Amino acid sequence: MTSALAQEADFSIIRYAQCWEDADVLLEALDIQPDEVCLSIASGGDNTLSLLTRRPRKVIAVDLSPAQMACLEIRMAAYRDLSHPELLELMGARASDRRDALYARLRPRLSVAARTLWDARTDAIALGIGGAGKFETYMRLFRHYVLPLIHGRRRLETLFQERSPEDRKRFYERRWDGWRWRLLVRMFCSQAVSEKLGRDPRFFRYAEGDVAAQVLASARRALVQLDPSRNPYLHWIAFGDYGDDLPHALRPENFDPIRENLDRLDLKTGAVEDLLAELPADSIARFNMSDVFEYMSGEDAARLLREIVRVGRPQGRVVYWNTFVPRSRPAALADRLRPLSTLSARLHQLDKVFFYRALVVEEIV
Ligand SMILES: C[S@@+](CC[C@H](N)C(=O)[O-])C[C@H]1O[C@@H](n2cnc3c(N)ncnc32)[C@H](O)[C@@H]1O
Fold it and tell me: pTM for the whole thing?
């Protein structure tokens, strides 16, 4: 079994320079126990590093894209050789005028492939590596050119003030959710614009429903139900940095636990389908699958889940997100995968990265 996506999309560019998936939610969903073996889609790298704070025996990080693996590699080098404040500077989470010098310190640690990629991206280094992807560029365009047409700086700052849920609802309904907001978000987040500027068109092949309407509805949840003043991901979209609350992997208390466990990471570039085919039965306890199932047909998704069940340990967990395509274990796997629906629904409500339709948590029976 191999990945159809691997044959079609261009993986030489960085698509996601950060993990746009909430690591707090992921960690609670996976419930990793010490000494377990985990498999994690590398993506931007942050969430794979977060898994190390639970002291698993091993985390196998896999991604089809060498560019995404280079994102993980540069972070690993940064945890090894930089201090925590320097890591935040390199990421773009704090102001800096010496990112090139920080990179020069890490460069010798990188593989030839990662070094070649980052050497060619001096622009991204200067900006902060967390802003280097196509998806982050899309968000930057939104921040610089679209958002100012909708709301002025003062109103934007008011949105991020701490307030009660009732106040947030009132603010959203009276001052935020006007016709400009709806119109411009509808235009900028439409499938057509998103395909051109944000995600690869092949990522939408199986998308269902009105993409922009879903973004609008989930933005309401992020601005009213969740607290914008404590949401680093939302802060990044609005201001280009995380503010005071950082994503899990970047919090000071997680720096040493990640650094101390970097040797437990095993990096594999390639399709997860191919990797699984080489692994023995009963060998992996926890699977962070990002949202890979929605880039494949329903049949391919079912086949991959069946492989996960074969390789997975009893009571192990599989966690993944649905953005625009509803995917979960098919009926044919009902006796092998049990949906943890109450947990999924609760965590979905807490998900600070608001644009997902669902979080799926399934237990291997
Ligand atoms: C697309 S990102 C997730 C981004 C985020 N959820 C979003 O859409 O905003 C997931 C990562 O999965 C990788 N990927 C997709 N299909 C894969 C496969 N079959 N095997 C390994 N990696 C895969 C992509 O290269 C990417 O880095």
Answer: 0.93
